[in-house]
Write a structure and sequence with these properties.
A mainly alpha (48), B mainly alpha (465), C mainly alpha (58), A: mainly alpha, 1 helix, B: 465 residues, mainly alpha, Growth Hormone, Chain: A, 2 domains, 18 helices, 0% strand, globular, disordered C terminus
């Protein structure tokens, strides 16, 4: 167990976990956004 | 720095094992404002339920002309996710985190999933209906997308509600649990009522653009409400830096095995399922019964929903007050089931007597009985939950409750149709209401051993702790 | 992952809202720009029926 505490008071393990959550969230958000835009395009090519 | 001092405080709090990871909860009891804020997640859940079961159900059929059978399939999709609540609850109990959070990550992810579902939902529905130019594309795209949207929202609601209730149980000392349960139920109901009215007004003049705005507005509101609800609620586990005991890695099977061997665990779940089914089977049948059989006007039948809600609110309030004084929670649930007996009898009797007054009284009593029953079983679940398996216990309760309610509502409609087609319309309703009476009797019979046993549980649990 | 350790240097209370806020403001700005610089979005949101499949968008 590394107990190195950085400038922000977070250990490396904590930092990694926070980062993992952020990455996962971003990936999920991106996929949802892509799907929503795809469906909007299928509905009508940019609402034209 | 602040952290070291907090760890010191947490160390002191550990002495009183009851409030283990929550230094805040130990010194002063939770202020009401914080509890109210926490209960906002119930508002977002209520909003999602109304949108799925009520508003979108109607929009798909009336405005988008989607076949009713397809709508029924889509709307019932989230129910298939309900049994997984037990797994979600367990996962949040066993969640290993360097940050020392068990509940917040799940509520965050659940909110994201719910948000994502709502984000794609309007377009998915429009494509499902073959509107715009989507008719050029194969039909399965719309069906798949709409199904995914409903599944995502359902998964999000189930996750947020299960883990949110577990967080509430974590935060609140046992004597305050009845108040919190009451608050949670009231906020769920409030969220449902307010959003039903709001959606009604907003979609008064339907356009595809308005549909997109309303549903995506609901998506954003979900995120805002849920973030507000959990903001700074869960303290980080002070023991997070200690090396974990290696045997703590349990899987769901093991945890479930332990849980089901708890005192009367399966009987409790059976009672929850039977009682919930008994109190929800009439859900979609009350208004047509009033209109079709008792020839009440549309405004009068709409008033039925308000009557039912008022009864429910009274039940929650009464249960909060009485259980707050230490009354046995399962006995309270039993009283709720007992109140249901005259309630359904009144509703049945209203048809031969042709009396809307009896019907209204019966509906209100159903609300009261359902409120007492729901409150009683949830409080009992919270009280009986071992501190390290709160999520699993509440997940199991939620899984049984949500599944039973969903199946019962669907089954009620089907049974009414089938039986009414075989005989005559009145008998279709009477058949379902009688079935509910029967279910209540079975529920009460199954509860009898629980009420007497309760005291023994309490003492054994105290000794074990 | 080398970026995973960045939160030992950047305070999450600053960095996370900054990140999420940037995504939110960015996507909102793009949609707002499309709404103000074209006519078809506001037409759609004001409830005008979209073109029939035969008449493609211009």
């Amino acid at each position: 167990m590394s107990e190195k505490v950085g400038l922000t008071g977070l250990t490396e393990a904590e930092s990694e976990e926070l980062h993992r959550n952020l990455i996962q969230g971003t990936q999920f958000f991106g996929m949802i956004a892509a799907l929503a835009h795809l469906l909007a395009y299928i509905y009508t090519p940019w609402l034209g | 720095m602040l952290r070291t001092s907090r760890r010191l405080v947490d160390g002191w709090a550990d002495l009183g094992t009851r409030f283990l990871p929550f230094a805040d909860a130990a010194n002063a009891d939770l202020p009401l404002s914080r509890l109210l804020r926490l209960s906002l997640f119930q508002v977002s859940c209520g909003m999602a339920m109304v949108l799925l079961m009520g508003t979108l159900n109607r929009v798909m059929i009336v405005e988008l002309h989607v076949p009713a059978a397809l709508v029924a399939i889509m709307v019932s999709l989230p129910i298939f996710f309900a049994p997984l609540r037990a797994v979600i609850g367990f996962r949040s109990d066993a969640h290993r985190s360097a940050l020392g959070w068990k509940r917040v990550p799940f509520i965050w992810r659940g909110s994201m999933v719910q948000f994502g579902g709502f984000a794609i939902m309007p377009f998915a529905l429009l494509v499902l209906a073959g509107a715009g130019q989507s008719a050029h594309y194969p039909a399965w795209i719309g069906q798949l997308a709409a199904g995914l949207a409903f599944l995502l929202v359902g998964a999000g609601v189930h996750t947020v509600q299960t883990v949110g209730l577990a967080l509430a149980t974590d935060l609140v000392p046992e004597e305050d649990q009845p108040k919190v349960v009451g608050l949670m139920y009231v906020m769920l109901l409030a969220g449902m009522i307010v959003s039903a009215l709001a959606f009604g007004v907003l979609l008064e003049t339907y356009t595809p653009g308005r549909l997109v705005q309303v549903i995506q507005g609901a998506a954003v509101l979900t995120l805002i409400l849920n973030v507000l609800a959990v903001w700074k609620q869960e303290a980080r586990d002070p023991r997070r830096h200690e090396p974990r005991p290696p045997i703590a890695e349990v899987d769901f099977q093991d945890a479930w095995g332990v849980f089901r061997r708890g005192p009367d665990a399966l009987r409790r779940l059976l009672v929850v399922g039977l009682g919930t089914a008994a109190f929800s089977m009439e859900d979609v049948l009350l208004e047509p019964y009033g209109g079709e059989i008792l020839r009440m006007s549309v405004s009068d039948t709409t008033l039925l929903t308000a009557t039912l809600s008022a009864g429910g609110l009274f039940g929650f309030w009464l249960a909060s007050v009485v259980l707050g004084r230490g009354y046995d929670a399962f006995r309270m649930a039993g009283i709720g089931a007992l109140v249901g007996l005259p309630a359904f009898a009144l509703v049945i009797a209203a048809a031969p007597l042709d009396s809307p007054g009896w019907f209204g009284t019966g509906v209100m009593l159903i609300g009261v009985g359902g409120g007492l029953f729901g409150h009683g079983t949830l409080t009992a679940t919270m009280r009986a939950a071992p501190r390290d398996a709160v999520g699993l216990a509440l997940g199991a309760w939620g899984a049984v409750q949500a599944t039973a309610a969903g199946v019962a509502v669907g089954l009620g409609g089907i049974l009414r149709d089938v039986y009414a087609a075989a005989t005559e319309p009145v008998l279709g309703y009477i058949f379902v209401y009688s079935l509910e009476l029967l279910l209540l009797v079975v529920t009460i019979a199954a509860m009898v051993p629980l009420a007497g046993w309760r005291r023994d549980h309490a003492t054994t649990r105290k000794q074990a702790a | 992952m080398i970026y995973g350790k960045m939160w030992t240097v950047v305070k999450p209370t600053v960095g996370v809202p900054l990140l999420i806020g940037a995504v939110a403001v960015g996507s909102f700005a793009v949609h707002l720009a499309i709404t103000t610089h074209t006519t078809w979005v506001s037409k759609f949101l004001n409830g005008e029926p979209i073109n029939a499949p035969a008449a493609a968008s211009s």
